[in-house]
Design brief:
Chain A: Keywords: 2Fe-2S, FAD, Flavoprotein, Iron, Iron-sulfur, Metal-binding. The structure holds 2 protein chains of 2 kinds. Chain A is an alpha/beta fold. Chain A has helices at 22-27, 68-74, 94-97, 100-104, 117-129, 149-155, 174-183, 197-209, 243-246, 257-268, 270-280, and strands at residues 2-9, 15-20, 33-37, 45-53, 58-63, 81-82, 84-89, 108-113, 135-140, 159-163, 170-171, 190-194, 214-217, 233-236, 239-242, 249-251. Chain A contains 11 helices and 16 strands. Classes of the chains: A alpha/beta, B alpha/beta.
């Protein structure tokens, strides 16, 4: 069992948990993820690592309940435990594994959308600890969905917050902020955009226009997370990659977001859900935790 | 008097009934039937059957005990050679191993060795007979990676010799392919697999789940920091292969691994488990091996009409004869000498059909089998809503890419000596699918057994 040392609600629907998992904490790096399973009947749910403490042997996960299984996760309290918790899975961010001197030369821009702020945070923190200050844009629909603001402020070079409805920070989508920053004379050698698929798609369209190479983190349907099931295959350029072993981070300009989103849309739209119900009976309830199907 | 040339028939669930449930197909012998079948054994002095068994079970000896009604003694004899008899009795390809060599088989049907082994193992389990841990421990730590057939066998054998063995399993449940791959109706999980895993634990073996070697820790760390003096890699063949044809990324296309893992490991067929699975109406399974049969028969039980698409003819089907026979009885449709060209998708990127081409057999290829070639102009389409690709797997590079000095071949398989399991790295042994590519449970067990023996020799002389 993997004990939850601290469970807290960050906003009305985003949760944070510090989980005891010494083997994961000893070996993980930013960009990697874990798979958690609550009990015998539960699904295996992939979640990106938000923070880790090697000394304490703990991993911090942050999630937004988007299906039956993550709804159940949200009911766990401090002192409860996950039956299974495995990782670190996937490859670390290249920024943490490439030659540090080369990385230091890069002007970096992170773009985080909603709960995607959680996987961006450890990367920015790691870079900060290694003497690199990156600019960070955090975008969310509304003020209530902004998370980790203080933590991010402590490690980012410049932090730009924007909300779609203008309730906090700048007003408008992250793509607008990217364009504004560049118009203001900022130059970036690389962008790392993590958030909902639609945000990553438009961030990539914007950075392509601005000629900024861009990395995105894909979070497709997954079962085992070790390369065994092939469910997480993603079209990257002409190649088929498995997000769990080849990713989760890929060159965003090579991802066919329309194909990737079609797969997710099956779970997301009413039409898609109705179709699924027709085709697959009652077996799909959005419980996979990946698609946001029933929210 | 029964016909001595024929096997005592084994009771099975009727095809129509079993096609709608996940209960075990074969019901096995009772004691009376087992004793009668055992009496067909000629008790050969130079037993060919033993030569055909990858773990060299003393077959005539255990069968003799069954004939006499001494089932406990029969179990003891089998246990000397095999840690997983209830599993082997169910999933070994006996027709090409022990039973394939049986002298009875020359002029009639071979003795039903597999069914007898199964009976003995089931009887022992039902009567609470368990292997016991050795009294003396030698205090030497050995790590086993993977809790599938090779890992469990290697760990069991080493524990019997007194070693302190820990198995590291990547998934949340022990058993490897026995739990994620082979379906319930062929190999019951809680009744059989879990019990045999318990038996291995009863020998003193520890199992740590949720540890991915190469990620959660590495072989070098296990040896340098955690005090393991030798390591056996039985990590299996993990990565599913795809054909690379158009439409393969559509919704409704699965690898057999995904489909079976959802169903078997995650128990998606049960309402009380959360993991979803596709319930297709019309399913095409591409491939002709045991895994293809398992996927097809699972889809059938979930309510689909199922077609097996296989590019060679029936004679070349790699699956066990019994599985093909059962699949046919249950109503699986075999589209033989047929190969997919394209998966057809609708406007929502869902599978709506599959375009196939007829094949004929040409000259033998490297595998010795006649190579299938397309018949020009023979393409046709069938409507399906689900496609399951069962084309085999290749080893997962997680371990080989993170272990210093461990050599692999061009197929990414770990290079290990066939006799000893020795790899290029001192103290590290390997066997099973990680070495051979996808093969059978019993061959993996044989490799685990051989490695246990050489690990013992290595550590004794260290």
């Amino acid at each position: 069992m993997y004990k939850i040392r601290k469970a807290e609600k960050l906003t009305s629907n985003i949760y944070s948990m510090v989980v005891e998992a010494p083997r994961v904490a000893e070996h993980c790096l930013p960009g990697q993820f874990i798979i958690a399973k609550m009990d015998e009947e539960g699904e295996r749910i992939p979640l990106t690592i938000c923070d880790y403490d090697r000394e304490e042997g703990t991993i911090t996960i942050v999630f937004q309940p988007i299906g039956a299984s993550t709804e159940k996760f949200a009911t766990l309290k401090t002192g409860d435990a996950f039956e299974d918790f495995v990782g670190p899975l996937g490859r670390p961010s290249e920024l943490c594994t490439d030659d540090l001197e080369e990385v230091k030369k890069l002007k970096l821009l992170f773009v985080a959308g909603g709960v995607g702020t959680a996987p961006v945070y450890p990367q920015v923190k790691w870079l900060h600890e290694h003497g690199i200050d990156a600019d960070v844009i955090v975008g969310a629909k509304t003020k209530d969905l902004i998370i980790l603001e203080k933590e991010m402020e402590a490690v980012a070079g410049n932090l730009y917050i924007t909300t779609d409805d203008g309730s906090y920070g700048r007003s408008g989508l992250v793509t607008k902020v990217i364009e504004d920053l560049v118009a203001e004379g900022k130059q970036y050698d690389r962008c790392i955009a993590i958030g909902p698929m639609i945000m990553m798609k438009f961030a990539c369209l914007t950075t392509k226009k601005l000629n900024i190479p861009t990395i995105v983190s894909m979070n497709p349907i997954m079962v085992d997370g070790t390369g065994m099931c092939g469910a997480c295959r993603v079209a990257v350029g002409d190649e088929i990659k498995f997000a769990c072993v080849d990713g989760p981070e890929f060159d965003g300009h090579l991802i066919d977001f329309n194909v990737a989103m079609k797969r997710q849309a099956m779970y997301k739209t009413e039409e898609g859900q109705a179709l699924l119900k027709l085709r697959e009976g009652d077996t799909h309830h959005g419980g996979c935790g990946n698609c946001g199907g029933d929210k | 008097m029964a016909d001595v040339l024929k096997k005592v028939p084994v009771r099975e669930q009727a095809p129509k009934v079993r096609a709608t449930n996940f209960d075990e197909v074969c019901l096995g012998y009772n004691k009376e039937e087992a004793m009668e079948e055992a009496s067909r054994c000629l008790g050969c002095k130079k037993a060919k059957c033993v030569e055909g068994c990858p773990v060299s079970i003393h077959i005539p000896d255990f069968i003799h005990q069954v004939k006499e009604g001494n089932i406990e003694e029969a179990y003891r004899i089998i246990s000397e050679s095999s840690a997983l008899p209830a599993i082997c009795g169910r999933v070994c390809p006996q027709e090409s191993q022990c039973e394939g060599k049986c002298i009875r088989g020359i002029k009639g049907e071979a003795v039903s060795i597999g069914k007898l082994e199964r009976f003995v193992a089931d009887w022992a389990r039902e009567n609470g007979i368990k292997p016991t841990a050795p009294a003396e421990k030698n205090g030497k730590k050995v790590a086993v990676i993977g809790s599938g057939p090779s890992g469990l066998t290697c760990a069991g054998d080493l524990a019997k010799m007194g070693y302190d063995v820990t198995i590291f399993e990547a998934l949340h449940k022990a058993g490897g392919v026995l739990v994620y791959g082979i379906p319930e109706f062929r190999l019951p999980k809680s009744a059989v697999v879990e019990k045999e895993v318990e038996n291995v634990k009863a020998l003193g073996v520890k199992i740590e789940t949720n540890v991915i070697i190469g990620k959660s820790t590495t072989i070098d760390e296990l040896m340098d920091k955690e005090g393991f003096e030798a390591v056996f890699i039985g990590s299996g063949a993990g990565l599913p292969m795809f054909m690379g044809i158009p439409g393969e990324n559509a919704n409704g296309v699965f690898s057999a691994n995904e489909f079976l893992t959802r169903n078997n490991l995650m128990k998606a067929f049960r309402d009380d488990y959360d993991t979803p699975i596709a319930h297709g109406k019309k399913v095409a399974v591409v491939g002709g091996g045991n895994v293809a049969m398992d996927a097809a028969r699972t889809a059938l039980r979930l309510g689909a009409e199922v077609h097996i698409i296989y590019r060679r003819s029936e004679a070349e089907l790699p699956a066990r004869a019994e599985e093909v026979h059962h699949a046919k009885e249950e109503g699986i449709i075999f589209d033989l000498l047929t190969n997919p060209k394209e998966i057809l998708v609708d406007e929502n990127d869902w599978v709506k059909g599959i375009r196939l081409v007829k094949m004929e057999l040409g000259e033998p290829d490297a595998s010795g089998r006649r190579r299938p070639v397309e018949i020009p102009g023979s393409e046709y389409e069938i409507d399906v809503d689900t496609v399951i690709m069962s084309l085999g797997t290749s080893p997962n590079p997680l371990i080989s890419s993170t272990t210093i000095g461990l050599d692999t071949n061009k197929r990414k398989c770990i290079i290990a000596d066939e006799e000893t399991g020795k790899t290029s790295k001192e103290g590290v042994y390997a066997g099973g699918d990680a070495v051979t590519g996808a093969a059978t449970v019993i061959l993996a067990m044989g490799a685990g057994k051989a490695a246990a023996k050489s690990i013992d020799e290595f550590l004794k002389n260290k």
